[in-house]
Amino acid sequence: MLSYEGLLKIQPKSFTDYQVEMFKEPVRQIRNVVSLYNDLLISSSLSGFHILHNNSLKSTPLPSFYTDSFQYNHDMIDGYADDYENGTWIMTRMLKLLYVHQNHLYDYTGLIHRKTREPSYDIAVHPITGKIFLCSDSALITGDKNKMEVYHDADGKTFDKPISILFTEEGVGIVNVFFKGIYFITRENKIVKAPPELDIIDERVSGWIYQGIKGLIWIRNSGRGLVCFRVNDSYQVTDVQQFTTAEGLPSNDVLDIATDKQQRLWVCSSNGLAIMTYKSKQDTWDIYNVSKQLGLNFDSLVDGRMAVDTLGHIWLSTIDNLVRIYPEKIHLQKEIPRIVIEKVLLDMKETNWDNYADSVYSYFRLPYKPVFNYQQNSLGIQFNGTNLSDASAQEYSYMLEPLDTAWSPASQNNFVSLLKLVPGNYVFKVKAKVRGNEWSEPTSFTFSIERPFWEKWWFRLLLIALASWLVIYIYRRRIKAVQQEVNVQNQLNELEIKALKAQMNPHFIYNALNSIQSLIVDEKKSEAINYVGTFSRLLRRVLEHTNSNVVTLEKELETLRLYIQLESLRLNMDLEYNLVIDEELMTENEKVPPLILQPFVENALWHGLSRKKGEKKLDVSVAQNQDYLVFVINDNGIGRSKAAAFKKESSSEIYASRGIEITIKRLIEFNRSKNSPVEYHDLFDSNEDAAGTQVSIYIKKVV
Q1: Any idea what DSSP says for residue 236?
Q2: Distance, CA of 511 to CA of 525 (rounded, Å)
């Protein structure tokens, strides 16, 4: 039905409110209801006990075993158990143990010997022996109408402060012991500890343990919903399940449960009524929250209790309500709400979407795939689910793709703030469900946030192009500068080498001309002519090499031979000269600086051999290693020590020293190494007298 208040769903009435419709004087402060087969016993904390028979309410007269009317009127039923003989055992707050049979009350309180004034916690009747078991004081008491005593098992064991008890139809006892957990009383009358699977049950739960259909045992779990399990013949537990609001219960604070004739489990909680139906194929339960569906709009279900009469009707009581529910008139159906996005706020403000989007859709005029700039990156989205039964029990879950990979936890909040989103394409999805039912199909809202211009592809491409151009420009400038530096350095090196050669050549020519002059003065014309011929050939080679930085090793050795021949003539020296070349060395291919060996040979001739008497030898060997050509010059002259003594006596020593210094500089520059290219070794004979000098010269191979 459609009304000004919205869409209403009309259902057939499935309950009777006895306080409003049947009683002339409502019963106040109802604390419990007990099904007495054909009648209902109502316990009130203001007016004692009442019997409801054929819709007629009758107050129970003051029993004789109550000392006064105040004690009776304020007594209330805490627990009860049928004795399987049309009678019901009852324990009360005033420490009474009563038996109800055919609407008559009998008092058996005197059978119990109490140590304290602490109320009883729970009561049960053994289905086979018919014995009563009462969780009273600090022990479990058992007996019958004739005698009650502390329970001992077959081994003499007892329970220390049991607070809940139930016997299954097979005669297995289940006892919850305060701060110790669940124990079993076997059919052989022995106490055994329950397996650790039941440690999830709160050890302080007093009140009830309940046997439902399919052999399931149900236990209220003190603010944590319900726990159910089965017990096999070996007293092991199976099929342990826990039900909370996450599985669909209205509240985790369960007050009472009952089973109707349709084998459905009714659960009364502090936040409403639920029905659980068993699915045998999956061995699971569906949960339906039915308070609003049935129209049971109680403000509070505190002290809610339930009882089932012989017709299978559910009696539900609260402090001020008594309702008879007809389960056969209730048709359970999973309601799946339809989810709708009602409002989208841009920057958390009401927005006229006609100014932001090409088109709008739906009754709520939402923008169709809007595109926002990078500064409009905060949205508020409001949504709602349509539900014809209980909108207050609706839950929502959402996700924002691509940021979220999973749905958010279920919540009753129907507004989401999306703050400071980064640029990109987004799809907001939301779905709804009634607690305990299936989720609806999600609805979605698609939107995009543009990137700022500095994050767009064309700007980045332009930036990359500019950066690339700048790198290339700097690189080319650097390459050009390096090339210029290299060219300048090469020119400087070449000029330095030419300068060194220029210093070297006059020194050699000066010495040669002095030699020719000496021969002419001494009137040695033939020797002078021979000397001039050799000198001319040598001079020609020197001139040929003036503009060359390197010459072949073959030419260098030939120049050296001419020089030695010329110096031998000039010094009138009978010289034994030997040249040894490594067989694997190809002299025509190797390159060396021109006139690089001449200063060292000159040093050997002038300072080592010229002042020696007797046999004079000069050996030159040429070898190679991986990187260097190695020249070794050996003479058997007077040695470096004696030669040093003559330096002060001859000015020509200055020129000789200068030639060696220049040559070493040339070698260092040519080798491109700071390591010394020349090594000197003094030679000695067997008497430790000076026997000459060995000079090793290392010249870098030219690749």
Answers
A1: -
A2: 18
Beta bridge partners of 279: 284
Identify the burial level of 482 via C-beta atoms within 10 angstroms of its C-beta, where 0-12 means exposed, 13-18 middle and 19 or more buried. exposed
**C-alpha to C-alpha distance for 175 and 167, rounded to whole angstroms:** 9
Q: Which amino acid is at 682?
A: D
**Mean pLDDT value across residues 536-550:** 75
Running DSSP on this structure, what letter comes out for residue 392?
G
Angle between helices 553-570 and 457-521 (to 10 degrees): 20
Number of domains making up the chain = 2
- Confirm whether 177 is domain-assigned: no
Task: Give every CB contact of residue 703 below 8 A, 6+ residues apart in sequence.
Answer: none
CB 573, CB 609: distance < 8 Å: yes
CA distance 599 to 419: 87
* Residues in the chain, total: 703
Amino acid at position 684, single letter: F
Range of the domain at 349: 338-453
Whether the Cβ atoms of residue 250 and residue 271 lie closer than 8 Å to each other: yes
CB atoms within 10 A of CB 491: 10
Cα(221)–Cα(199) distance, integer angstroms: 11
Element (DSSP H or E) covering residue 295? none
592 C-beta neighbours (distance < 10 Å), count: 25
pLDDT in tens, 10-45: 567 889 999 999 998 899 999 999 998 779 999 999
CB neighbourhood size of 147 (10 A): 8
Q: Phi-psi category of 557—alpha, beta or left, where left has phi over 0 and alpha has psi -120 to 50?
A: alpha
User: Residue 366 sits in a domain of what CATH number?
Assistant: 2.60.40.10
**Cα(46)–Cα(58) distance, rounded to whole angstroms?**
15
Pull the structure tokens for residue 375. Answer: 């500064």
- pTM, full prediction: 0.58
